[in-house]
Design goal:
PKD domain-containing protein; 1 helix; 7-stranded antiparallel beta sheet; Immunoglobulin-like; PKD_dom; Ig-like_fold; PKD/Chitinase_dom; disordered N terminus
Length: 868
């Protein structure tokens, strides 16, 4: 809508795009032969989601007519949109929750064509720019992608009515639930029809008057690209033959799609139907549809058709695949081949370990005797010990790659193989033999799939990735090395094919992967690998020396216990260091030494039979002493004295002056780092850290001021620390606990208690509490008048409870009976305002209800005068 408004403001007319197409098909009927041509009435049908109100179908659209065998363009026809309709439904099945609204706009283009007889036949093609976005079974980041819809007219017999799909397009499919979807078709010639999943076509190729491929944008169609047409890029676990995953199949003779739906999303599904006459497939028609699978649920008993326990376990844990909230009861029953029940349960999840291998029947019944009852059955194939495996030999483009099945089984025999060689450029990269071969016409990584099975019903799937190259790979152990003549050296190569080394100077075994050589001068040897005519070449350079150069390096000094990497200068190939105990690896050129004592290391460097030896001394110097002192804990807001010690000749503190005993005042827990240096040879400082822990500020609390009556026990409750000291001792049951009980035998205008609160480190703080003691019975005092003038004296009409354990309410009414104030806290009163507005002088009625310390109810009412 934002785009619409913007275009209107700019004075342009919105051009609706014919994208977001959700599917289509094309079919025809034969009208007869006249004037030397065959005549056909053709219908193109396309679908668009009802959520694309700002989109339109192409009007007009181009239909391309091509030779079916050669792809030659015969002509293009511009066809106007014949009609458009909306179809929709919402399931009213009470056993479906969150049933979606399924809705499409359907566009129809109808036209007549006359074609001369052709032994090759014809292909009719329509293309659209874009499918809907975010299709779940396509590869990630595929971008927006077009669609191609076709119909085939056979050359013989040309008098043919095409198959026409007649199944409903309004089907509710719930994610991860069982479903069925009819792609059934009818044929006016009563030809045999055979159904299968096939690739959805995208739009790739040259388009007449529109170079770059694909139809034009906006509402402008363009002539379609010529065949061949290519499939959309499916994602992992999906393909043209499995658009909804491995749990969904299509019946080859009815066109009914059944199985367990994948997770929620949009999936492109294309069904091909072959017209078979007299045993010969004369034409193939296609229907392409983006199916919207939603998060609805069905109160059904839903299981996979089979549960394979063919690995290492005989335990089956299975749940109903429908998670509908309408399902409340379950009944499971497992039976063996003899019909004996081996397990039953009323749990939501069945969990059983089969005692013996075999094939078992699984039955699940849900909601017996309730609304939405259902039941289903499945098989448990329990034959552990089946493991698919395969290897491949050959990696060259346009050369056979040999695949060898290595699947093993404990029960039965391996007797089923279905290979998918992962060649995305064709739809014929399949085989059903045990050890097939395949020629790849393009380089790159190929994801090969093997579905293997055995004679007792086990099936499993294995994926391996192979790399197809333009030359066979050669793996060399080394490409550049030294030799000290007259020693002998073995060259080492690995790969598949025939090896040939050259030149053969001082070489034996030139036609093997690992020949032996004994050169007397620098030389480069070449290795050629021939894998069935696929060639590669690599080389090894050998340099000759008559001695080994070696310098272990200058002696050095390190801080005691520090690691140091020894770095000799040498052209040696092998190294041996001693003593080995303080080295991380005594057989490498640059070992790491860690020692606390001065040590002389000896290194021997070797090239075949030539060697050299040298030494290097590592002198160790101890770190200076550095002690930052013990960690300490201080009270909040107090200083701490640090005490450091060292035998070095200099020292530092982080962010402090150089003083061995500084005074610090941290606001929070802080680490202080002490570094000590000396000039005895260790270039690094010794470091120690002292942590000053600052305890949190004490929040001393003695309780709120209160009032009691003579004889009433008063529970005091102080908080904020670990130790408490009360004073004065008047009426208190104890002085060194947080919660003493106070009782009084005489009245008092106010006793001011002080409690000293102390934490774990001895830090202290004080809090105060005032208690008034009345000689009356328990009561609530309310003044007879108050003056809310803001002078801080008698500004509120407030209740003062004495001898009460609870004030249940204090309410004030004006002379019209309107409630103007209410409170449940003693000492909290009314300031003479209503919603911030000052009230006039006058008499106000108050009521109070409380519970005294003995548990008796107290009620009192009275009047008070507001004085201005």
């Amino acid at each position: 809508m934002k785009h619409f408004l913007l275009l209107i403001l700019l004075g342009f007319v919105l051009v609706a795009k014919a994208d977001h197409i959700t599917g289509g098909e094309m079919y025809y009927t034969y009208s007869g032969f006249s004037g030397g041509t065959h005549n056909y009435h053709v219908t193109l049908k396309q679908f668009r989601s009802c959520n694309t109100l700002n989109r339109q179908f192409y009007n007009p659209t181009y239909i391309g007519i091509f030779n079916r065998a050669t792809g030659e363009r015969i002509r293009d026809i511009s066809v106007p949109l014949y009609r458009e309709e909306q179809i929709s439904t919402t399931s009213n099945d009470p056993c479906i929750t969150r049933a979606p609204f399924v809705c499409y706009y359907v566009g129809y283009w109808e036209f007549d064509i006359s074609l001369p007889p052709s032994p090759d036949g014809y292909v009719l093609t329509s293309q659209v720019t874009f499918r809907v976005d975010a299709i779940n079974n396509l590869a990630a980041n595929y971008g927006r992608i077009g669609a191609t819809y076709t119909a085939e007219i056979p050359g013989t017999p040309a008098a043919n009515h095409s198959a026409r799909f007649v199944g409903t397009d309004l089907v509710t499919v719930c994610a991860e639930n069982s479903f069925s979807y009819s792609f059934a078709a009818e044929d006016g010639d009563n030809d045999e029809l055979r159904y299968y999943f096939c690739d959805a076509y995208q739009t790739i190729g040259y388009v007449q008057n529109n170079p770059g491929g694909g139809p034009g944008g906006g509402n402008n169609s363009a002539p379609p690209a010529a065949p061949p047409y290519y499939g959309v890029p499916y994602g992992n676990d999906f393909g043209g033959d499995r658009p909804l995953g491995n749990l969904v199949s299509i019946h080859p003779t009815t066109g009914l799609i059944t199985g367990i739906a994948p997770s929620a999303g949009i999936y492109v599904v294309t069904v091909c139907v072959q017209e078979i006459r007299n045993g010969v497939a004369i034409a193939t028609q296609r229907k392409d549809l983006q199916i919207n699978i939603t998060g609805c649920t069905i109160a059904a008993a839903s299981l996979l058709p089979e549960y394979m326990l063919c690995g290492n376990s005989q335990q089956l844990v299975v749940s109903n695949r429908s998670n509908s909230p309408l399902i409340s009861t379950y009944y499971w029953e497992f039976t063996n081949s003899a019909g004996n029940v081996v397990y039953n349960s009323t749990s939501a999840t069945a969990d059983h370990t089969f005692a013996t291998p075999g094939v078992y029947d699984i039955k699940l019944a849900t909601n017996r005797g309730l609304q939405c009852p259902d039941s289903t059955t499945a098989k448990a194939i329990v034959f552990p010990g089946f493991e698919p495996a395969f290897t491949s030999a050959g990696t060259c483009i346009n050369k056979p790659v040999l695949f060898t099945d290595q699947s093993t089984t404990v029960h039965g025999s391996v007797n089923y193989w279905l290979w998918d060689f992962g060649d995305l450029s064709t739809q014929t990269d399949y085989a059903e033999e045990q050890n097939p071969s395949y020629n790849y016409s393009s380089m790159g990584s190929k994801r090969v799939r093997l579905i293997a099975g055995n004679s007792v019903g086990c099936r499993d799937t294995l994926f391996n990735t192979i790399d197809i190259l333009d030359k066979p790979p050669i793996r060399l152990a080394f490409r550049d090395t030294l030799i000290c003549p007259p020693d002998q050296l073995q060259l080492q190569a690995a790969g598949t094919g025939v090896f040939t080394w050259s030149p053969v100077v001082n070489m034996t075994g030139a036609n093997t992967p690992n020949p032996s050589v004994s050169p007397t001068a620098d030389i480069k040897y070449y290795v050629d690998l021939d894998q069935d005519g696929c060639l590669n070449r690599d080389s090894v350079t050998i340099r000759t020396v008559d001695h080994v150069t070696l310098s272990a390096g200058a002696d050095t000094t390190i801080c005691q216990g520090d690691p140091i990497t020894l770095r000799p200068v040498s052209d040696g190939l092998l190294y041996t260091w001693t003593p080995a105990a303080s080295l991380n690896d005594p057989a490498v050129k640059h070992p790491v030494a860690t020692t606390i004592n001065t040590t002389t290391y000896t290194v021997t460097a070797t090239i075949s039979n030539c060697s050299a030896t040298d030494q290097v001394t590592v002198r160790t110097v101890p770190y200076p002493l550095a002690s930052a002192g013990p960690d300490t804990t201080i009270c909040y807001g107090t200083p701490a004295q640090l005490h450091a010690a060292t035998n070095g000749n200099s020292y530092t503190w982080n962010n402090m002056d150089a003083d061995l005993n500084p005074v610090v005042r941290p606001a929070e827990t802080t680490p202080y780092i002490f570094s000590a240096y000396d000039n005895r040879g260790c270039p690094k400082p010794a470091i120690d850290t002292v942590v000053v822990t600052v305890l949190p500020e004490i929040q001393a609390f003695a309780g709120r001021d209160t009032a009691v009556v003579i004889g009433q026990p008063l529970q005091l409750n102080a908080s904020g620390g670990l130790q408490y000291t009360w004073s004065p001792a008047t009426g208190l049951s104890a002085l060194n606990i947080p919660n003493p009980v106070a009782t009084y035998a005489s009245p008092s205008r106010g006793i001011r208690y002080r409690v000293l609160v102390q934490n774990i480190a001895g830090c202290t703080d004080s809090a105060f509490l005032q208690v008034k003691v009345y000689s009356t019975l328990p009561t609530v005092f309310v003044p007879t008048a108050w003056t809310p003038n803001g002078d801080g004296m008698n500004d509120q009409l407030r209740p003062i409870a004495a001898g009460m354990q609870e004030l249940q309410y204090f309410m004030v009414y004006n002379r019209w009976g309107q409630l103007v104030f209410a409170s449940r806290q003693t000492g909290v009163g009314w300031d003479g305002r209503i919603n911030g507005v000052l009230q006039s002088s006058g008499v106000y009625v108050w009521q109070v209800k409380a519970v005294d310390y003995l548990g008796f109810d107290f009620f009192k009412t009275g009047t008070a005068t507001l004085i201005r």
